Amino acid sequence: MSFTIIKHPLIIDKLTRMRKVETSSKDFRENLNEIGQLMVYEIFRDMPLKEVDIETPVTKTKGYTIDVPVVLIPIIRAGLGMTEGIQKLVPTARIAHIGLYRNEETLEPVEYYAKKTKNIENSYVIVVDPMLATGGSASKAIEIAKGWGAKQIKFVCLVSVKEGIEKLQKDHPDVEIYTASLDPILNEDGYIVPGLGDAGDRIFGTK
Ligand code: PRP
Ligand code: URA
């Protein structure tokens, strides 16, 4: 299973803005959105293309269009904030939703919503959540997506730690992981350090 850290000065700069405690929800959302767009270039690098006949103002020629339907699956809530940016560049993508929250004591994911799209089994599926901490939420969401029939799945996050990567690699060795940062510590409360705090609360201004 592959694990890719997408490093780019623009992503690093925007992530640093997001980490700062004084960053407003508006700026946090905007930077998350923009990082989502920047990460798309790498995530979709292996997308299959099909040859098509086209006509330019000058001549007939061959062109290439994307040959596979795309399904994005944000893990609600925080995944919604990152999916928006990705969707801007892949506007034909269908969106499925999975709602999970972590039990504060056990840190286990609790499912409260799941809505699939049609044709998911033939689609290029991207599960999106900014935070990969214990890995419980991502693993559960991927399990649900596989239960819907999804076969070709990638997981995209902004900030990750070793524990989450290892859990996903163990539970779903077929799923490629993309992240913008591998942070050093998962603390005893299940927060990533230095991290950026509770992503959902910062996106939606709920604390
Ligand atoms: C956050 C985050 C992930 C999860 C990551 O969601 O958005 O879904 O925690 O932690 P894990 O890897 O240990 O499972 P949270 O449960 O806070 O819900 P929210 O998005 O509604 O705030
Ligand atoms: N979920 C978050 O939103 N932040 C963390 O640091 C860990 C899990």
UniProtKB/TrEMBL annotation:
Pfam family, one: UPRTase
Domain Phosphoribosyltransferase: 6-206
Residues annotated as signal peptide: none
GO cellular component, one term: cytoplasm
Tagged with keyword Aminoacyl-tRNA synthetase: no
Entry's cofactor comment: Binds 1 Mg(2+) ion per subunit. The magnesium is bound as Mg-PRPP.
Pathway: Pyrimidine metabolism; UMP biosynthesis via salvage pathway; UMP from uracil: step 1/1
Keyword Lipid metabolism annotated: no
Enzyme Commission number: 2.4.2.9
Similarity remark: Belongs to the UPRTase family.
Protein name per UniProt: Uracil phosphoribosyltransferase
Lineage: Bacteria, Bacillati, Mycoplasmatota, Mollicutes, Entomoplasmatales
